[in-house]
Amino acid sequence: MDATFPRDFLWGAATAAHQVEGNNTASDLWAFENAPDSFLPERSGDACDSYHRWREDLDIVRDLGLNSYRFSVEWARVEPAPGHISRAHLAHYRRMVEGCLDRGLTPVVTLHHFTTPMWFRAAGGWTGPDAVTRFRAYVRSVLPVLDGVEWVCTVNEPNMVAMMSAMIKRGERRENAAGAMPPPDQDVADALIAAHHAAREELGALPRVRSGWTVANQNFQAVDGADDLAAEWAHSREDQFLDAAKDDDFIGVQAYTRVLIGRDGPVEPDARRTLTGWEFHPAALEGAVRHTAARVGPAVPLLVTENGIATADDGERVEYTREALTGLARALADGVDVRGYLHWSLLDNYEWGSWTPTFGLVSVDRETFARTVKPSARWYGEVARTNTL
After folding, report:
1. What is the widest separation between alpha-carbon atoms in the chain?
2. Which terminus has fewer CB within 10 Å in the chain: N or C?
3. In the chain, how many domains are there?
4. Strands 302-306 and 259-262, how do they pair?
5. Cβ of 318: how many Cβ atoms within 10 Å?
6. In a domain? residue 5
């Protein structure tokens, strides 16, 4: 189908600090990566050196014809020790915001994208006695960075954080299907919801800011009559986090694939696979957008903050993205209030333990850090420039 998107639609690309910046040495994940008995096969190391090369990255976003860039502020850099705020790192992130604005890019800033300071984890992490208070204080310290920023994500994929916490506590390894994980640690989930609301209170001091959080949408679909079990999986792993956003300024939708639920739990279909092992399922985005809109209600706008594919075949990336955007256009035509689409990711980056899954619109040489824009990026840029698919 041919589709025209709204005139003020945000077209962008996304990154996360730990995955692209490099040498995030004060974070908990850095400690996990570099532990002698680490469960992670590869280290982030210098990553994409985006801490130093962010200007080049923003130039690429602008030159492609996109109008938005999502990036995260790294808590472990801003507060490397409890109560000690780094003015230098705050100034760095402020320069990134100004760099977006100077290039005509709308910054979408995430305050927590999976990683936390090592000291925070040592104090009990999200279930520690002062976790919410400490996160609130961190958010307050970042407020000067956010002048002129309209879109702020408090926490990235809190449902995934809570599910990973449960998995680590149980000593399990992550399963192949995107959502085929244990139920979330409910204490962690409750703490994240409280931290999100505390962060929104702090962000209320900035009248221009719209705040919300992003949820990993798993597109649970019942097979073999397992509707009740699929609904149970959806509620515990996704819907309770959507419900917590019903009073937010927006909600971020993040979708990649689907999870089939049979009578005995997740079912792995005989299907085409991506480099992460997930089913190739571009329709996941439309399903996630419609499910989220139905759950949070019409008063909460949606922003697609992540969608993409791990593939070494750039033509497959175009195929996947075209089909995903076609579904998104159908949802928009039916009245779903979606304000923008941010592709994951701008760069081939560190995917939480491995460099193998390449999601990027731009490849990065691991030795020289040279950026090479892929044909898929130029195709996507043309969609953004013309606002049509």
Report:
1. 57
2. N
3. 1
4. unpaired
5. 18
6. no
- The Cβ of residue 14 has, within 10 Å, a number of other Cβ atoms equal to 29
Instruction: Please name every residue paired with 273 in a beta bridge, in sequence order, or none if there are none.
Output: 279
Yes or no: say if 338 and 303 are a contact pair by the CB < 8 Å rule.
yes
Per-residue pLDDT of the chain (389 residues; tens, 9 = 90+): 578 999 999 999 999 999 999 999 999 999 999 999 998 999 999 999 999 999 999 999 999 999 999 999 999 999 999 999 999 999 999 999 999 999 999 999 999 999 999 999 999 999 999 999 999 999 999 999 999 999 999 999 999 999 999 988 877 665 545 667 889 999 999 999 999 999 999 999 999 999 999 999 999 999 999 999 999 999 999 999 999 999 999 999 999 999 999 999 999 999 999 999 999 999 999 999 999 999 999 999 999 999 999 999 999 999 999 999 999 999 999 999 999 999 999 999 999 999 999 999 999 999 999 999 999 999 999 999 999 99
Bond before 376 cis per omega within 30 degrees: no
Tokens of 374: 């892929």
The secondary structure of 75-142 as a DSSP string is HHHH-SBTTB--HHHHHHHHHHHHHHHHTT-EEEEES-SS--BHHHHHTTGGGSTTHHHHHHHHHHHH
Nearest alpha carbon to residue 44 among 32, 57, 54: 32
Quick check: is 2 in a domain? no
CATH of the domain at 349: 3.20.20.80
Question: Tell me, what DSSP letter sits at residue 248?
Answer: S
d(CA 293, CA 55): 35
* Residue of 323, 371, 329, 366 whose CA lies nearest to 347: 371
Residue partners of 300: CB distance under 8 A and separation at least 6:
212, 245, 246, 248, 249, 250, 251
Which residue segment(s) compose the domain that 250 sits in? 10-383
SS (H, E, C) 259-270: EEEECCEEECCC
Question: Which residues participate in catalysis according to the annotation?
Answer: 157
Q: How far is CA 4 from the centre of its chain?
A: 25
Q: From CA 237, how far away is CA 158, in angstroms rounded? A: 10
CA of residue 109 relative to chain centroid, distance: 11
pTM: 0.97
Any domain includes 106: yes
Q: Does residue 224 belong to any structural domain of this protein? A: yes
Q: From 188, 244, 190, 183, select the one nearest 218 (Cα to Cα).
A: 183
